[in-house]
Design goal:
The chain has about 450 residues and is of the alpha/beta class. The chain has helices spanning about 15-35, 85, 90-100, 105-110, 115-130, 140-155, 155-165, 170-185, 200, 230-235, 270-280, 325-340, 340-350, 365-385, 390-395, 430-455, and strands at about 215-225, 245-250, 255-265, 290-295, 305. It has two domains: about 15-185, no CATH class; about 200-455, no CATH class. Belongs to the HARBI1 family.
């Protein structure tokens, strides 16, 4: 899988760290609500990592069943304010959520990771589909807030318990209810590629018309996991950390087209890729279109990889070096365009830091968290394209100059799969077509580059 280790499998919250986080959250809420004359209720200064170990699932054993509670009855209110009949039962958590939702919008984006309008819309979607319901004690808004607080601030159950003043069992139940509810409709938030040329390509002469049939980029990332001692072997990646190998197809406007989570960290890049294109719910590529892929993936129909044994990219691009042939020029522009996946992953991790250090949940829950986080990421992008986190990463990320390439002594990228591995998936004619398509793009690009250089 592509470089993407984002956390250490031993990154647990200590009692002191959780106490500090709770104090910080309390101060942030206090500050953001002062301007509207509101203050957050005090939070107990206590916290322990709550390792909720459970049964270990596999990537094909993800359940979408809703948990129900016999202790809590339905409430009939459908409005967003706390109904009168629930006022008497409103907990500190309910009041906290009410204050955030009636305070400045910045308070909602900071604490619930999305603005108030789309928070309320998500509540309506989950309620309208019958996936969540008000109870005598906890409204849908508070249920969603509990979930978003946990994933948006990487809280353990104990910390959320102290923040919302509910039992650990109640916190866990509603966390899982919301997780399963969003998981069950996650496909609604993953849109297939459109037929139009992405503006990121059509409006940039470095990429158009050469990549006019490109719909996005495929890349991978290792998300840390917590598994039992007996299960750790397959999940230990090449860096010695426990992770799940996640493959994602991303658009150039920072949305996910497809996500495959749950593969063991030791699985090879080609193994995960092959699963993504061969499984029943496979990654589908529109006819005549393709995704860009990293050098660790094969150059096959529907997926164009850079040339191996040719300069590609580096963190440092010294000035003064020009591409020497069509392959180098192709690799450079391929690298620049494919960087959209990096920005997409960065926004995802910034919004949902629970993905950065392993949550102490059953494996199937950890796998669901990845898919649900990507679904919410897409939902926010579709509903509010100028969301503050998307704006931040769009403004902070700039494409590198194409007159800069790594020095010649830089490490050359090499393919890490064997061609015989492709025989069972693609025939010789298909592989030849993929090679010719890449060569055609590189040749056209190089001819135009030389012409432009000659004309000054």
């Amino acid at each position: 899988m592509v470089n993407g280790i984002v956390g250490d499998s031993a990154a647990w919250f200590t009692r002191r760290q959780e106490t500090s986080l709770l104090k910080s959250l309390s101060r942030n809420l206090d500050a953001s609500l002062k301007c509207s004359g509101m203050r957050m209720h005090s939070v107990w200064e206590q916290g322990n990592a709550n390792a909720e170990q459970g049964s270990v699932g596999t990537r094909d054993q993800i359940s979408s069943l809703m948990e129900s509670s016999e202790e809590e009855n339905d409430a009939v209110s459908g409005n967003h304010a706390i109904p009168a009949e629930l006022s008497r039962l409103a907990s500190n958590g309910a009041k906290l959520v009410d204050e955030v939702l009636n305070g400045p919008n910045e308070s909602c984006t900071e604490n619930f990771r999305m603005d108030k309008t789309i928070f309320y819309k998500l509540c309506d979607i989950l309620q309208g589909k019958g996936l969540l319901r008000h109870t005598n004690r906890i409204k849908i808004e508070e249920q969603l807030a509990i979930f978003l607080f946990i994933v948006g601030h990487n809280l353990r159950t104990r910390a959320a318990q102290e923040l919302f003043r509910y039992s650990g069992e109640t916190i866990s139940r509603h966390f899982n209810n919301v997780l399963n509810a969003i998981m069950s409709i996650s496909l609604d938030f993953f849109q297939p590629p459109g037929s139009d040329v992405p503006s990121e390509i059509s409006e940039d002469p470095r990429f158009y018309p050469y990549f006019k049939d490109c719909v996005g980029a495929v890349d991978g990332i290792h998300i840390p996991v917590v598994v039992g001692v007996d299960e750790q072997g397959p999940f230990r990646n090449k860096n010695g950390l426990l992770s799940q190998n996640v493959l994602a197809a991303c658009s150039f406007d920072l949305k996910f087209h497809y996500v495959l989570a749950g593969w063991e960290g030791s699985a090879s890049d080609f193994q995960v890729f092959n699963s993504a294109i061969m499984r029943r719910n496979r990654l589908q590529v529109p006819e005549g279109k393709y995704y860009l892929v990293d050098i660790k993936y094969p150059n096959v129909p529907g997926f164009i990889a850079p040339y191996s044994n040719t300069l590609y990219h580096s963190k440092e691009f010294p000035s003064g070096y020009h591409p020497q042939d069509g392959r180098e020029l192709f690799n450079l522009r391929h690298s620049l365009l494919r960087r959209a996946t990096d920005r997409t992953f960065e926004v995802l991790k910034a919004r949902f830091p629970i993905l950065i250090s392993p949550p102490p949940y059953p494996l199937q829950t950890q796998v669901k968290l990845v898919v649900v986080a990507c679904a919410l990421h897409n939902y926010i992008r579709m509903e509010k394209p100028d969301d503050w986190l998307f704006k931040k990463y769009e403004e902070d990320t700039s494409l590198q100059r194409e007159d800069s390439l790594p020095p010649l002594e830089a490490e050359q990228p090499k393919s890490t799969f064997h061609m015989q591995s492709l025989d069972a998936t693609f025939d010789a004619e298909q592989l030849q077509f993929a090679t010719q398509r890449r060569d055609s793009i590189a040749t056209e690009m190089w001819n135009d580059y030389i012409r432009d250089m000659s004309s000054g």
